[in-house]
Amino acid sequence: MPKRKALMQRYAQLLIPLLSLLAVIVINLIVNPAFFTLALRVNNAGNSVFAGNIISILDNGSELAILAIGMTLVTAATGGQDISVGANIAIAGGVVLRVLCGNEAAPASLHAPIIVAFLACCAVAMLFGAFNGMLVSVFKIQPMIATLILYTAGRSIGYWVGGGQIAKISDPFFSYFGGFIPGVPIPTPIIITIACIAAIVLALRFTTLRLYTQSVGINEKSARLNGLNPLWIKFLTFLIIGVCVAISGFIKVSRMSTVNYSSIAQDIEMDAILAVAIGGNALGGGKFSIGGSILGAYTIQALMVTLYSMPGVTSESIRFYKALVIILLVSISSPVVKNGVSKIRMLRKKDIAREVV
Amino acid sequence: MKETVLEMRNISKEFPGVKALQNVSFTLREGEIHALMGENGAGKSTLIKVLTGVYSMDSGQICLSGKPIKIKSPQDAQAFGISTVYQEVTLCPNLTVAENMFIGRGKYSFVKWAEMNRKAKMLLDNLGIPAKPAQQLASCSLGVQQMVAIARAVDMDCKALILDEPTSSLDEQEVVKLFSLMRDLRSRGVGIVFVTHFLEQVYEVCDKITVLRSGEFVGEYSVEELPRLDLIAKMMGKELSSLSEISEAASMVHESESDFVYEAKNLSGSNGTKPFDFSIRRGEVNGFTGLLGSGRSESVRTIFGADKALSGDIRVGGKPARIAKPFDAMKARIGYLPEDRKRDGIIADLSVRDNIIMALQVMRGAFRPFSKQEAEDFATEYIELLGIKTASADAPVGSLSGGNQQKVILARWLLTHPDYLILDEPTRGIDIGTKVEIQKLVLRLASEGMAITFISSEIEEMLRVCSRMIVMRDRNVVGELTGSELTQDKIMRTIAGGAANAQA
After folding, report:
1. How many separate domains does chain B show?
2. Tell me: the pLDDT tens digits for B368-383?
3. Looking at this predicted complex, what is its ipTM?
4. Are residues B364 and B477 in the same domain?
5. Residue A224 forms contact with B (CB below 8 Å)
6. Distance of alpha carbon B67 from alpha carbon B65, whole angstroms
7. Structural domains in chain A plus CATH codes
């Protein structure tokens, strides 16, 4: 019994994101029972692949889910958020284009192996992550203000890095990462996301990442007196979010075979923060649940797909409807509502006890 | 006899596990400056908080000018004419002096600026406070800010003014100005309660002294009848219980082991610790003593690397070592239980288990996390060993009582099996039973060969466990006492220093 209670406590945090995801799904099923049909279709490239709304949600939610991992760690350790991830994706995308296309706008063959482009994009995204991390840890600037710098400058930097032109990559192999690998019916971004989740799960299992980030986020002074270096741990979380940016940037470029610097991954930072919040994580730092954030990310993606499928919702009005749902989600998970619910529960228990007597 | 302004009779207040106030009485008369004295945890701030309506008392009575009153909130206290000025100025620095004096006091939403400034100027002139009404508060010195806060209180018709450590952030000249303002108010008939740790200041400005110790009322004295030494004795307590027995035990330990675990020469710290030499042997328990603010905590923080050392040659186990940060100290097998467990000790939201394994985990390294089972075993072992009362090892440590939190941090360091363990106020805010347990544990650990530094505000407790005492005053080491010198009397004389020493 006590074991079950401990387990329940542990997963209580996941309750709200799970319920909201379920709610979105149920609404969809009511409105359109065929919403979640899964079909095996032959795509343009001649591969037979899975198609359907579920696949589309998982596929298109990949970048957000990957970013949510990094955002959760940054939030946990620093008690603040990185709002520069979208702009940093533009830079990462610029690096990919520049390495693969050189100065040509539409090269006939790639200038470098794809792995080199990926590693370069990782290195650069981590470098900018390090820049943010340094501002936050060493100079003790509030994360939102520190990352506001890159948020402002990132898309211009991306444009310059990309050589001042919007090159297009026509190599079919490159498009595998944002599309399908021949013979594999599941979109590659989903596979990449699974790999990322596996990586962070292993990291949390085989290193003390969780203990250290949480300690620093909860009580920095105490963490230091236990021999930790809070500066380094905060810095580290920004390096990790840099890797997340590189991977999701790489997927994005592969999807579109090009980079539109002003619009690539626009507002994704806000969705990533929202995913962390919906996941039941305190934005003030401390204890965290990566699972919650990932569920949160897919909830947001599912919500978008759902809203688009609703009659009368246009791309102009969708933001308003999205906001309506978000109000609902965040107020459900607010401490006021949570306390209210637990109070009602206590009263009920008392009533039951009285009846029994 | 002057008329009584405020009388608190038989005030008691209990927090879970701690009797913060037991039958404490306090009387404030018209036109008197009354010092409220006591070491940390004596109950001064609890008494003040009861008086200002922050806490409600469990039993007792408060009378204002002879009439019993009920104070339920700070607003109530204000309405009764009881005003408090805290150590940290609680005004708004970005408003003007006049605004700060009158903010939140008008009945209407509109402000007559000219009238307000005129009134403020009158009051400031009247009290001789060197500030202009239209000046931004932030541009005044801390001392003047404090005086503005006092002026605000005075203008609100206060009968009793409580100054809670007003001088601790002021320089000497500002203190002089503050004192002349206090004397001025005294001559106008205001009763002032003055809480401070500075003995000199008490003798300079106060008429009466009330001493509290461990939540109990020790006595009320007029300043003339209570020399400094006696005051220190009253603050620290004088029961000479089981002293002889302990010093025997202590000297025994002393003889048997003689290798140094830790040595420091000329160690000084960025926290203001003046250079001092210090060494400790295996199996020895020593103590740093001195009044609050004497630098006893700062010294050990410097040893552990919690605050940066400015100079010093350090040897650990006979070999030269460099301790620049806590991790270096931990590698040198030094443990440190900090004075302020809420701020520096516990990681509140984490479980008891994580809090216990924390230090050992950090020493083991980031890539070798303890398995769930190992962590659970450690936690269970120490929860049992120290009798930590917790629902489970999974409970957040913040949900435990203060004493149990302290034990969790103690467990954290015992788990690392240090050669040298520094305990800064390990028994503060802990009930008597647990206190004795911790003292026994310290002596047992020492008998097993651990070197321990034990710091406490309660001198009896230190006499019980320490075989050597390093006495500090004003961040300087002023004496080192061992063996037969270890008496309350001798320690107090060393703390008081100067004239008192000459008499001895």
Report:
1. 3
2. 999 999 999 999 999 9
3. 0.86
4. no
5. yes
6. 6
7. 12-34+60-349 (1.10.3470)
